[in-house]
Amino acid sequence: MNILIRLQEFFSPLGHYLSYILAYFFETLFLIIFAALSIIVAIYVFRKYMARVQQRIGPNRVGKFGVFQLIADVFKLIGKENILPKSRDDLPYKLAPIVVFMGLMLAFAILPYGSFYYLGSFTITHSEVTIILLFAIISIMPIGELLAGISSYNKYAILGSLRAVAKDVSFEVPMMLSVIAIVMMASARTPSSLSLESILSSEFLPYGILEPIGLFVFFVSMIARASYSPFDMGESDSELITGSTTEYSGMRFGLFYVGMFGSIFLGSLIVATLYLGGPSGPLESSVGFIWLLIKAWILVIISFTIWLSMPRIRIDKFVNFGWKYLLPIAVINLILTGIITLGWGL
Length: 346
Fold this sequence. Notes:
This protein is mainly α. 68% of the residues lie in helices and 0% in strands. It has helices at residues 3-11, 16-53, 69-79, 90-108, 130-138, 141-151, 155-187, 196-202, 207-210, 212-225, 237-240, 250-275, 288-309, 315-344. α2 (16-53) packs across α12, α7 (155-187) runs antiparallel to α10 (212-225) and α12 (250-275) packs across α13. The protein is globular and about 55 Å long. The protein starts with a helix and ends with a helix.
């Protein structure tokens, strides 16, 4: 039983088709609310945590412990004058933040969330190829960054978007190779090795234990992919203002900002799903959703700690790290996984 069936049963007096339409509508609404709340909490936690780590005063004026500061900031962004560059390419300029935001929201819909008591499974997408769908949707987000940079007709924005593309390509290849290693290992135990749910149901130990090298490569690639320190940020604050988003203001810039923090939380959910057992936990399976959130938030805190405590790496060293170190490590891991899978049947 999953939440969609529960909703359909609730609306069943309205008829078969209408009940399913309403069930899908509310399931989608719940997903959007969940993703939005998670991002809001991530931004609040980051700002408070940053203040504590860097020994300075964080948001503490609007509401108790500054909990309403973020809401105040949203209203501030909405109220700001929406300045548009005169020479912009209008349609891609306006589409770019929407592409980034929609790519993020769609990726949340692919993950298996596990169950939560009476409501049942929160998983929305049931497909045999969810792992391909997930990474295909994630790859939409860099297109938004590229559109933003090129359509702004600003040399700093174009340079920023090119840096972002270089970053993404450098780390997506080792990231994909580490995922292929998991698919290879899962294929020995399930015919649906491209399904995230099947991968989770087939593991006897979390893949983080069987694939520690893959976990390292994937986690580092996730940090680099989300564009925060220690890896050179695509926007390079001190040199290119905000990179591909230089010419954006108001809520359009806010959508890019949400995309960055959403990527951190989404990446942590993916690592928790692929390498830490996802919704599996030591207690009953009906609280799998809670276990997944706990694992993801631990990874978010680790990511924030790395962000706040490490110096930045220069762009050339950053790209070299992806191609010269992470890629060979990912290839070695793939070969070792093949030997282990074929030789020992794990």
